[in-house]
Structures are given as C-alpha cells and as structure tokens.
Design goal:
The chain is an alpha/beta fold. Helices cover 31% and strands 17% of the residues. The chain has seven helices and seven strands; from the N terminus they run ββαββαβααβαβαα. Helix 6 runs antiparallel to helix 7. The longest helix is centred in the C-terminal third of the chain and has 16 residues.
Amino acid sequence: PAQGLGPRSQGAVQAPEGSPASSPPSPRGQVMLLGDSGVGKTCFLIQFKDGAFLSGTFIATVGIDFRVRWLQIWDTAGQERFRSVTHAYYRDAQALLLLYDITNKSSFDNIRAWLTEIHEYAQRDVVIMLLGNKADVSSERVIRSEDGETLAREYGVPFMETSAKTGMNVELAFLAIAKELKYRSLWQPDGPHFQIRDFVESQKKQPSCCSFL
Ligand SMILES: Nc1nc2c(ncn2[C@@H]2O[C@H](COP(=O)(O)OP(=O)(O)O)[C@@H](O)[C@H]2O)c(=O)[nH]1
Ligand SMILES: [Mg+2]
C-alpha cells in the first residue's frame, strides 16, 4: 500500500470558506476538493490530516485548508450547488478531487455537471481524480463500482472508491496527485515515466464486500 506523505505532523490552518486567497502565494501544488454537499469532502480531508473520522454535520459550513509537504489542500464549503464555486478557485487549482457518495444517486448524476464546469474553468492540464466515497456503507450502496469506473473511463480520469470513515484509499488519492504533479514538474523527455491511472489501479483497495451489487 502507498505510504509516505506523513500529513499527521502538520498543523491545520483554519481558513473561512476554505478560500485559497487566504493562503500566501506559493509554488505549491494546489489541490481542491469538489462535489455535492454531504459527499464527505471535509471528512475526507480530516481523515487524511488527522487519521480520524468525525461523524455528524459539525463542519458543514466551514471549509478547511492545510498543507502537507508541498501540497496545499483546500475544501469547498457552502459552494456545492451547481455553478457556485468561484471561478478564480478553479484557475488556481492544479489538481481536483471530485467526490460523489456511493449511497446518493444525485451526487453521482451531478458528476457530469461538475466535469463540464471543470472543463470550462479549470486549467487545461489540471489533474482530476474521481472518487466514490462512503464505500464502507455497502448496505446503502446505490451506485455500483462499475458505474464509477465507466464514467471515469469516459472522461479519461483515474477512479477509486474511498472511505473517509475507514481511511480506505484516502492517503493514496493524495499520494497519486503528489506523484503526478511532481512528475510533471520534473518532466524530461528521457526521464522516468509515471501514469497516474496505472499507479492508482495497481495500488487501490476494493471495498471488502458486495462491490458487484
Ligand atoms: N459512512 C460514511 N460516512 C461518511 C463518509 N464520509 C463522510 N461521511 C458522513 O457524511 C456526512 C457529510 O460529510 P461531510 O464531510 O460534512 O461532507 P461535505 O459536505 O462534502 O464536506 C457526515 O455525516 C459524515 O460523517 C464515509 O466515508 N463513510
Ligand atoms: Mg464540508
């Protein structure tokens, strides 16, 4: 399994609205979490940062913003309605983690709208990863793993199912992004090759049961 970003030693930076504008400008890899309200974006970040899962809606309206090594990660909050993310945010992002909830069909159906928006406003070479979150709740699953895979293939983006609760594939998502951004920044014609989709496919874990539902 993938290891190595060591986020837990880093302090959190509280930023109202998760605004990138509140962070000092830097050459960091900027990573933004997107997806409908309730899909688990904030929990996903807290699991990565602290190794903890917080249930409930305590942080529903506040985004968090923190750094891990050279990644700067921010969360969108209160902007999850379609076309409500400030377009400047997209411009600054080098990578986007796009989440849906495998127990919520509309969050999955909205992924196409999110991708349309991303293609309109984000940097052309932005790294996108599609994540089907809450994979631990197999009893309430309404979106099959294959459906996520098919959609991801259609858009040419890597895909995994994740759980902000158990931590499944959470660190891997950031590790894959970090590797891809680093690879791009160091790219040389004869240099080593890195394919984010192959990396994710070779490292990702599957939910323990019922993924064929
Ligand atoms: N079972 C389970 N619940 C989750 C998971 N991720 C988030 N949740 C719950 O889903 C709700 C919304 O999570 P939150 O992070 O606030 O979503 P956000 O609006 O996208 O930031 C909360 O009640 C979380 O406890 C997960 O992976 N598994
Ligand atoms: Mg949130």
